[in-house]
């Protein structure tokens, strides 16, 4: 599944990212395969998304989140 | 003998870099611009011991050496140019104890440039509360440098930092990452082609779109081996590089950093739950805005009335104490009232900067960006446009510069174009004096009419900004990738010293910059108002005496002075444009104020003050002088219709040369500032015209 399908409070592991479509800045903030990612809050209309990636807190738009593939952690 | 060395402060945004800078330099700092570009240059001096002082440069906050904004490109350029006079002898990298992992990414990059780099871990006061412990000697060994553990909040560890800076020569300059581990063939090949250069520098030259002094960019990209690599191949290498760097950092921190997660009390999530709530978040934001605007109007009025009457008294005492002559009247009628017109709004500007810097310092501003992004996108803006639009209420110049971290060019351009619609501090004195003149006292639901009017003007500015943004987003044909990444920093209690320095620094620059323009304009106005061509000007006394032989004393003097003013150079100029502005409800004196306002809006009050002082000898405040102006039919010049028409003209017209200049710099073309100048002023004329025609 892709990151934009994650529900509030769920924790997932990043499986893969579409490098060409993501800003390098996001990758540098820890958005890399293998790292943990969780959805903290959604703004109204579910966009943008407030995430915890690795140890960083960032907000990104939903369209960007589609390029991040994740696997739910049990 | 005294030695001096160059120190560059680097670090991610929100790590307390500015606090370190303030602690080290205090009030020796000065803020300017680098020649030719609009990146803010903050520098200061710090005494290290009796013989050595450090020249400290506070570089813009950067996440990494892979530039995604102009500020970041600038940092890279400086670090690569050994010939620059600002090139650092030693780099000081500020990190935040809670975000050490991400902050260290930049550390490994700077270290790879072979510059001695001291690592500063800030906010050590948070460690106990967050359950963090650090093995400093081990980290020093792994990262191959010296570490200073400091707390700017508690003012701890700064002396150790100064000692480390003083002994920078003992630091290692060895790079950390072996680039050949990323892609052996590519990097060995690169090394073979340019054996003289450091490999990481070459790599930056290839991947970054920046100008370099020493290494010839063209030469590198022309050598076929490196040019043939596609952009996406390079980006994959960059990603690999980032992964390698994180592997190193994770390995290091596993040994040297211990976080007891249970000890961390979650202050952030509790505050977030309410501040970015889907409903309450917006209510809180608008409540904060309303409080700010109400208090600016209420709290400033006391010092403002005091300043206004002091300047009138000063002008009067100069007139009576100094021998009369050209110099005295220039001082009393030109310079003092002109300066009074700027000093009077220091309180309001200071309050505005105070609130804005508190919002930024606490970390609340990022939450506003998050809340507003979806809504603003509908108007072709970004959530990040909130910061320019809010700081535009202080001044459009820093606001236009603050658009730089909007990654999407179209959103950024639209933000730049509409920012001047927000009500800047320079409009405040115009509004304040007109509101006091034409809006009656009284209140509605506990809010007074005058405060409501002011709020209405702020609102109309924002609405016009949104409306024109929407129109621009539909008409501008620009395709650009939409990237939006906002860090959500921890909430912090604002550091008093930081807020105080920001307020002082911004207000001072604003007043001196505007003061220079206002001073020059008021001298020019005084000359134009005090001299005139032909008989009408020089023989005013005889002419008036002939027409009105019964007039005596003050009445006679006033009549002569206004006749003279009408036939001075400025009177002739004003009369010439009167036909164009009388349908808006203005007379020729307001016309002069309008013209001089194109230099800067705040000149309006000063201009009228100068014109009226030349005309009358009595000691009066600016406001009373304006209130006593009448039309030919005896009704007051400033009434509801002309007052509101004038306020709306100032709300929409593009009257600020400095903003036009900064927009030219930021967009690199005259096209956009010209569109602003003509488009906005045309709109202002139409709106002011219809308002006056309807209300009058």
Shape of chain A: globular
CATH topology of the largest domain in chain B: Rossmann fold
CATH architecture of chain A: Roll
Taking all Cα atoms into account, the compactness measure Rg of chain A is 11 Å
CATH class division of chain A: Mainly Beta
Uncertain parts of chain A: none
User: What's the level 1 CATH class of the largest domain in chain B?
Assistant: Alpha Beta
Q: Give the helices and strands of chain A as they follow along the chain.
A: EHEEEHE
How far apart are the termini of chain B? 74 Å
CA-atom Rg of chain B in angstroms: 30 Å
Number of strands of chain A: 5
Largest sheet of chain B: 7 strands, mixed
Distance between the termini of chain A: 15 Å
If strands are numbered along the chain, what order do they take across the biggest sheet of chain B?
2-3-4-1-5-6-8
Q: Which superfamily, in CATH terms, is the homologous superfamily of chain A?
A: Ferrous iron transport protein A (FeoA)
- CATH architecture term of the largest domain in chain B: 3-Layer(aba) Sandwich
Residue runs with pLDDT of under 50 for 5 or more positions of chain B: none
Mean of the pLDDT scores of chain A? 90
Q: What is the number of helices of chain A?
A: 2
Number of helices of chain B: 32
Q: How many E strands of chain B?
A: 12
């Amino acid at each position: 599944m892709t990151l934009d399908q994650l529900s509030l409070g769920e924790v997932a592991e990043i499986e893969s990212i579409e490098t060409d479509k993501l800003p390098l800045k996001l990758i540098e903030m820890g958005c890399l395969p293998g790292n943990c990612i969780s959805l903290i809050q959604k703004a109204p209309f579910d966009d943008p998304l407030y995430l915890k990636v690795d140890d960083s807190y960032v907000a990104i738009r939903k369209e960007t989140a589609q390029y991040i593939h994740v696997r739910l952690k049990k | 003998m005294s030695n001096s060395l160059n120190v560059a402060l680097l670090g991610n945004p929100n790590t307390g870099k500015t606090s370190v800078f303030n602690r080290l330099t205090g009030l020796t700092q000065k803020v300017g611009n680098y020649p030719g570009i609009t990146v803010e240059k903050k520098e200061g001096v710090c005494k290290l011991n009796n013989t050595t002082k450090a020249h400290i440069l506070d570089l813009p906050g950067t996440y990494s050496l892979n530039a995604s904004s102009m500020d970041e490109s600038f940092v890279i350029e400086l670090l690569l140019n050994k010939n620059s006079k600002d090139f650092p002898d030693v780099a000081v990298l500020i990190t935040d104890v809670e975000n050490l992992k991400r902050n260290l990414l930049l550390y490994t990059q700077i270290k790879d440039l072979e510059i001695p780099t001291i690592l500063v871990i800030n906010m050590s006061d948070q460690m106990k509360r967050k359950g963090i412990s650090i093995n400093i000697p081990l980290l020093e060994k792994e990262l191959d440098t010296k570490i200073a553990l400091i707390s700017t909040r508690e003012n701890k560890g700064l002396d150790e930092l100064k000692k480390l800076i003083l002994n920078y020569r003992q630091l290692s300059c060895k790079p950390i990452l072996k680039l050949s581990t990323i892609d052996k063939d590519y990097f060995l090949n690169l090394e073979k082609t340019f054996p003289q250069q450091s490999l990481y520098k070459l790599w930056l030259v290839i991947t970054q779109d920046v100008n370099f002094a020493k290494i010839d960019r063209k030469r590198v990209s022309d050598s076929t081996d490196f040019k043939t690599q596609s952009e996406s191949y390079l980006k994959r290498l960059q990603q690999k590089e980032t992964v390698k760097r994180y592997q190193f950092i994770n390995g290091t921190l596993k040994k040297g950093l211990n976080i007891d997660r249970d000890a961390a009390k979650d202050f952030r999530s509790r505050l977030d739950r309410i501040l970015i709530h889907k409903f309450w978040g917006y209510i809180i934001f608008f409540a904060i805005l309303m409080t700010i605007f109400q208090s600016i109007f209420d709290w400033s009025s006391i010092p403002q009335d005091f300043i206004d009457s002091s300047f009138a008294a000063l002008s009067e005492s100069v007139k009576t104490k100094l021998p009369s002559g050209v110099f005295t009247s220039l001082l009393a009628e030109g310079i003092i009232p002109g300066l009074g017109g700027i000093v009077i709004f220091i309180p309001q500007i200071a309050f505005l900067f105070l609130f804005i810097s508190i919002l930024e310092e606490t970390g609340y501003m990022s939450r506003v960006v998050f809340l507003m992004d979806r809504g603003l996108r509908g108007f072709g803006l970004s959530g990040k446009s909130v910061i320019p639009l809010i700081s535009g209420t202080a001044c459009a110049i820093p606001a236009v510069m603050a658009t730089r971290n909007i990654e999407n060019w179209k959103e950024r351009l639209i933000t730049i174009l509409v920012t001047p619609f927000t009500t800047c501090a320079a409009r405040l004195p115009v509004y304040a004096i007109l509101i006091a003149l034409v809006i009656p006292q009284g209140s509605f639901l506990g809010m007074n009419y005058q405060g409501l009017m002011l709020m209405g003007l702020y609102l109309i500015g924002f609405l016009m900004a949104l409306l024109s943004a929407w129109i621009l987003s539909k008409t501008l044909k620009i395709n650009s990738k939409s990237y939006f990444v906002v860090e959500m920093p921890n909430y912090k209690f604002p550091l008093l010293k930081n807020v105080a320095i920001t307020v002082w620094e911004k207000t001072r620059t604003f007043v001196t910059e505007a003061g220079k323009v206002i001073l020059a304009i008021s001298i020019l106005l005084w000359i134009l108002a005090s001299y005139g061509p032909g008989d009408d000007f020089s023989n005013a006394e005889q002419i008036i005496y002939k027409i009105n032989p019964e007039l005596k004393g003050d009445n006679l003097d006033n009549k002569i002075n206004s006749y003279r003013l009408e036939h001075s150079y400025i009177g002739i100029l004003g009369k010439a444009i009167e036909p164009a502005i009388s349908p808006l409800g203005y007379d020729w004196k307001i016309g002069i104020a309008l013209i001089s306002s194109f230099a800067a809006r705040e000149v309006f009050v000063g201009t009228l003050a100068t014109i009226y002082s030349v005309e009358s000898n009595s000691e009066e405040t600016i406001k009373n002088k304006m209130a006593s102006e009448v039309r030919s039919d005896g009704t007051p010049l400033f009434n509801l219709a002309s007052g509101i028409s004038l306020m709306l003209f100032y709300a929409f017209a593009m009257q600020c040369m400095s903003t036009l200049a900064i927009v030219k710099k930021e967009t690199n073309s005259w096209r956009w500032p010209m569109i602003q100048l003509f488009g906005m002023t045309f709109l202002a004329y139409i709106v002011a015209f219809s308002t006056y025609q309807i209300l009058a």
